Amino acid sequence: MTRRRRRSALRAPVRGVLALLLAVVAAAPVGAQRLPFNSFDVEDGLPSTQIWALRQDSRGLLWVGTSWGLARHDGGGFVGLGLAEGLPSLTVRAILEDATGALWFGTGTGLATYDGRRILARRDEGAPRSTVWAAVRDAHETLWFGTQDGLFAWRDGAFRRFGVADGLPGEYVYALLVASDGALWVGTRGDGLARCEIAAPAQLKSCRAFDAADGFAPRIVRALAEDGRGRIVAGARDGGLLSFDGERWRSPQPGSVRQDEDIYALLVRRNGSLVVGTADAGLLLCVDAISGICRRVTEVNGLPDDGIRHLAEDREGALWVGTEGG
Asked: Does this model's pTM top 0.85?
């Protein structure tokens, strides 16, 4: 484990680290260079160092989902929230804000909401009761949740479940993305990837599953993103990084991204660059998803852990990296 520098305030130090990392991508290989990461763990108020979700809400607060509870950061420190505060499970893997400003937490036993005053476990009729892995909001303000027991939609005060009978390739939904064209992309555990048309609020018109004939062989899709040109980028456990040009899926040009890369998280930053989080081989800071021009950053360079679980960019452009170790 690397030695960590402690700071009482987060924002300024994290922005400084981000600027240095961006300079590294554009210039020389990182190699063994030590980067001034600012790391946080249980000593800083986090319930656990295994980080599954990161989201900054509309008020500027950072929310962190871990294996042992939820944490909120307002610029002064982390405040932990758990079962006593209303969570149905300590494991929080997804965080989403709806149009009203309420927060939705995807946990190991279903969903919970936070209205600014209290956390409420959602035991509505039809609500998911299993692990919630992903959460997105579409242009109709429908909320979509990917779970190990199917895809769920929340609209007008009611849940609706979708599965194989509705055109999905599988029931275990690992990753979700609402693309700029309004389509819902669904990554599964064991059954590949599909693109679904949303016909009306909380309604799926049709779904297209991708396979080897389309250039897409992976069956376990953990992460999805869209770049500035409308290309869909997929990160897989069993197939590395691929991007869709509207006709076929393609791997990056030979470079720093291995074809057998085990990918857990993706983030297309506002400047167009791509950040790739791997399961056990650190971060890849890439110019884009096509060129293969990337720089790898690991524990050797100051990361608290090489196992990356989530990536987020806040409104000020700071990069937040959730790992197995903080």
From this structure: yes
